[in-house]
């Protein structure tokens, strides 16, 4: 099946809002073996939307329109799509009832009922997170058309929980997927190691990079859920062998088990160990990410944000002679921070991070993007140097990448893996 996506909204076209919906839809469709050939962004202009839709319908099996389903005058996606596809808009009573329930006890303007007007004969995709339902129907030429709400908090769940199961039922068979998650391996190296997997037909393996990580989605189609999951697991296991110690998790593509900090919290809890962090340039981001995970209170002992030299000396016991001789951003200070916070807190593992996140503060010897990271278990201390050139990285990305590297160092320590391995 070949698909095209059309995101609707002038705010997207002008760059005021980033179109995350289309990216999410592309990944979900590709993971199910649907080829996304083109993506368009169209403003709130009826003539241009109609032109784009007619062109997409003429050459694709599936057209997904995102946005423009709301109650305002410029929300015209349904009207245009219905006209182009030869459909009448009719009141869908169940959707009207859901809108009524949503506004119970509040004033509900007459314009809200517009959201319940849907193409006649369509299959409705209920909106569990908002008022505008989605729907799926066929155009006169047989092309499948899906209409989805624009807000990501509504669109993504509808794609995941409504649209994809609908498409799976249409295609016959059952789809299952697993996500192999890696950190510290370069995109090129990962692609080389997984090259032969990327040509598989069933299961399929689809890679993508995000936030200095590489993900590989393994998707299988079979006659039963059990068989699909079995096929996914077999390929995922082989892929993990190929990618080695860079794999930190293999799980379904939900949010509750999907991040590096979840893996670290789980490993600490399994071993009955604790961790404390001393952060400078990351400003508490490591602690924040750990405490985002339910159950972190059992493993995170304490955390310090020690920006000044005085704080590093007074709270962590970093000797002033080391600070004066090597500077705050140095291997020696990172080492002393990790050892100091572990000693002060009594934790099993101490983490120290110091660096220059920019945009100012760099020098030729210590440029913006230079970060030193250390972990200590009381017997050994490991230090890594991270270089993230500012011309390629924002302050936010440098800090996030540093926090991820520190978390991965802890993961490697807990798993008995080489702590200093991996691209930074």
TrEMBL record:
Gene3D superfamilies: 3.30.70.2860, CinA-like, MoaB/Mog-like domain
Residues of the MoaB/Mog domain: 4-169
Annotated Pfam families: CinA (PF02464), CinA_KH (PF18146), MoCF_biosynth (PF00994)
Domain of life per record: Bacteria
Family: Belongs to the CinA family.
Listed PANTHER family: NICOTINAMIDE-NUCLEOTIDE AMIDOHYDROLASE PNCC (PTHR13939), NMN AMIDOHYDROLASE-LIKE PROTEIN YFAY (PTHR13939:SF0)
NCBIfam families documented for this protein: cinA_nterm, PncC_domain, PRK00549.1
Designated name of the protein: Putative competence-damage inducible protein
């Amino acid at each position: 099946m070949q698909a095209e996506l059309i995101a609707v909204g002038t705010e997207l076209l002008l760059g005021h809002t980033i179109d995350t919906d289309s990216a999410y839809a592309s990944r979900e469709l590709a993971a199910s073996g649907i080829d996304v050939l083109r993506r368009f962004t169209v403003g709130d202009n009826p003539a241009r939307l109609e032109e784009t839709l007619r062109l997409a319908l003429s050459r694709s099996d599936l057209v997904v329109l995102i946005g423009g389903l709301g109650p305002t005058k410029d929300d015209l996606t349904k009207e245009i799509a219905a006209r182009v596809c030869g459909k009448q808009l009719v009141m869908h009573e169940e959707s009207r009832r859901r809108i009524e329930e949503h506004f119970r006890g509040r004033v509900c303007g007459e314009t809200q009922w517009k959201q319940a007007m849907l193409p006649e004969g369509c299959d409705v995709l209920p909106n569990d997170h908002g008022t505008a339902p989605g729907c799926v129907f066929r155009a006169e030429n047989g092309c499948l058309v899906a209409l989805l709400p624009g807000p990501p908090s509504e669109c993504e769940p509808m794609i995941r929980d409504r649209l994809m199961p609908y498409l799976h039922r249409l295609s016959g068979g059952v789809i299952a997927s697993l996500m192999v998650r890696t950190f510290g391996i370069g995109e090129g190296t990962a692609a080389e190691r997984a090259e032969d997997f990327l040509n598989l037909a069933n299961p399929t393996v689809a890679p993508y990079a995000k936030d200095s990580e590489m993900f590989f989605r393994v998707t299988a189609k079979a006659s039963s859920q059990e068989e699909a999951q079995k096929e996914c697991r077999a390929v995922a296991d082989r892929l993990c062998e190929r990618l080695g110690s860079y794999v930190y998790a293999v799980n379904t593509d939900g949010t509750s088990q999907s991040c590096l900090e979840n893996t670290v919290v789980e490993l600490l809890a399994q071993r009955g160990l604790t961790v404390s962090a001393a952060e400078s340039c990351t400003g508490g981001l490591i602690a924040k990410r750990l405490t985002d995970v339910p159950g972190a209170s059992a493993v995170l002992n304490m955390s310090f944000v020690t920006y000044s030299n005085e704080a590093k000396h007074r709270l962590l016991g970093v000797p002033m002679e080391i600070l004066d001789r090597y500077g705050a951003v140095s291997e020696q200070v990172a080492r002393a921070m990790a050892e100091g916070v572990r000693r002060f807190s009594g934790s099993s593992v101490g983490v120290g991070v110091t660096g220059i996140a920019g945009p100012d503060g760099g020098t030729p010897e210590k440029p913006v993007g230079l970060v030193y990271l250390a972990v200590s278990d009381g017997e050994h201390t490991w230090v890594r140097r991270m270089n993230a050139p500012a011309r390629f990285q924002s302050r936010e990305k440098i800090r996030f990448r540093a926090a991820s590297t520190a978390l991965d160092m802890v993961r490697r320590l807990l798993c008995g893996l080489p702590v200093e391995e991996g691209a930074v």
